[in-house]
Specification:
globular; 3 helices; 24% strand; alpha+beta
């Protein structure tokens, strides 16, 4: 579930995107998995669903290793677009945190490969091969987000 103000708008990256409706400070938890509000479809049951439903889950969901299911966000978080240089980072498949200050009106992005082993399904064959071959850059996560500093300095966690 999104924990910051956002809105949907046409994206320069792809189709529609998720944009910040407010200034977001580095270290702020932007999204958190909330079972009951976010739907988790067991991976084992996906094959039993009609094709049109499987296609929807594949397009708007992601495979969460921890829950062994596909997560369908109960809000507009499904409009996060992929970036090689994202402004959020996934922690433990359970939350997304701002890795730097994000201005109001800026598109919120994430690296699909951090949390979704089916991420290649969201790209064309050429893009997926390129990303798997290393064009997708690592993101430096500020130590305060990871908890390597004084606990009072942490906002995420």
């Amino acid at each position: 579930m999104l924990l910051v103000k956002t809105y949907i708008e046409r994206s320069a990256i792809h189709g529609m995107g998720l944009f910040s409706g407010e200034f977001i400070s580095e270290g702020t938890v932007v999204w958190k998995l909330m079972p009951g509000l976010d739907l988790i479809v067991p991976e084992s049951s996906l094959g039993q669903l009609p094709l049109v439903v499987r296609d929807y889950v594949d397009r708007y969901g992601y495979l969460n290793e921890a829950s062994k299911g596909y997560v369908l966000c109960g809000d507009d978080a499904r409009f996060f677009n992929h970036s090689d240089f994202p402004n959020t980072v996934s922690l433990n498949h359970e939350m997304s945190v701002a890795v730097r200050d994000i201005e109001k009106g800026e598109e919120l992005t994430c690296n699909y490969y951090e949390f979704d082993r089916t991420a290649a399904n969201h790209f064309s064959r050429e893009q997926a091969v390129e990303l798997r071959n290393g064009s997708c850059k690592q993101v430096a996560v500020p130590s305060a987000i990871l908890g390597d500093t004084n606990p009072e300095d942490r906002r995420a966690g």
